[in-house]
Amino acid sequence: MVIVTNTRVESLSKSGIHEIPKEYIRPQDELPTITNILDEVSTDQGPQVPTIDLNDINSDDPKTLENCRNEFIKAATEWGVMHLVNHGISDDLIARVKAAGESFFGQPIEEKEKHSNDIASGKIQGYGSKLANNASGQLEWEDYFFHTVFPEDKRDLTVWPTTPTDYIPATEEYAKQIRALTTKILSVLSLGLGLEAGRLEEEVGGADELLLQLKINYYPKCPQPELALGVEAHTDLCALTFILHNMVPGLQLFYNDQWVTAKCVPDSIILHIGDTIEILSNGKYKSILHRALVNKEKVRVSWAVFCEPPKEKIILKPLPETVSEAEPPLFPPRTFQQHMEHKLFKKKNGVVDPK
């Protein structure tokens, strides 16, 4: 079967094929690591992604506040990923965001195509599917919808779906609340480095320049999930990533030289530390390698909000307070744009090292 660039994975999934096209089959050396995600999530063996309760992050009791911050810093230092509970965003709003995204993807493909992007012409926002940008020319088993959601003056509402009608109001409100949560998270991370509470937020663009991008990932059922990946192994380029999902497992983290499956924790938001914070902290906080698996039985949907610094205005390098004679800088100075290009170049040339 010949795959053209605009083929949607959903179309393949619904076509009744029993074997996936070769473009979606992972390299031979990677295949032994791809397991049945639905079996994996049912076991409690091995390490587990930490769950952090943010209920006490605003506590007036110094000891309670300190304990909450310490647990958070420990997770950011050892894992770089965690489930956040009692995060302050209402169950009702999250349900609306999920319902809106699922409703959009529930439309016929020809309706979704009205919102399609065009990477070749520079139109990156909209409905799309992964194009090959790695050495082996492989594709990933997902379709997606991508657009900027904050600040308001950086959005292009002409890209946003108008069906369902609640998509825009729900997503707008969710973006505002994620932006407020970002400030809280960056404050705790700053204090964990011995810095002023507002320092990391300032370093990644402050109130005006930090950009929030939403990517809704749609992973259709896959007839041969043991051969494919929804998203290949990578680290996030950004400062922070916040993820919702439809309670279907799929996320795996590379922790202590093994792939660990993230459990589905009710009412949680998954938080990833991205490369930007790892660089600024000189490696104290981890940007963990992760990937998405697919399955035969259930469609998986996730909502990822990437918090990105401005591409050219800021030089990303370890902060002076994180560097010493004993701990020299681990990363060269680069703009965010240069960091993106550096990683893309390595990926295109088949270099596995994520940094």
Strands in their spatial order, largest beta sheet: 1-2-10-7-12-5-4-3
The parts where pLDDT drops under 50 for at least 5 residues are 1-5
- Tell me the domain tally: 1
Question: What's the CATH architecture name?
Answer: Sandwich
Estimated share of beta-strand residues: 15-25%
What percent of residues adopt helix (DSSP H or I)? Answer: 25-40%
* First-residue to last-residue Cα separation: 35 Å
Radius of gyration: 20 Å
Q: What is the CATH third-level topology name? A: Jelly Rolls
Secondary structure tally: strands? 14
Coarse shape: globular
Overall average pLDDT: 93
Q: So how many helices?
A: 10
Main beta-sheet annotation: 8 strands, mixed
Overview of this protein structure:
This is Anthocyanidin synthase. Pfam families: 2OG-FeII_Oxy, DIOX_N. One of its GO terms (biological process) is flavonoid biosynthetic process. With 355 residues, this protein is an alpha+beta fold. It has one domain: Sandwich (Jelly Rolls). Helices cover 28% and strands 19% of the residues. The protein has ten helices and 14 strands. The protein has helices at residues 9-14, 37-40, 62-78, 91-105, 109-112, 167-192, 199-203, 206-209, 275-280, 336-348, and strands at 51-53, 81-85, 126-129, 143-150, 211-219, 231-234, 240-245, 251-255, 258-261, 269-273, 290-292, 300-308, 315-316, 334-335. The strands form three sheets. The protein has an eight-stranded mixed β-sheet. A four-stranded antiparallel β-sheet has the order 6-11-8-9, with no helix packed on it. It has a two-stranded antiparallel sheet with strand order 13-14. Helix 4 (91-105) crosses helix 6. Residues 1-5 have low confidence and may be disordered.
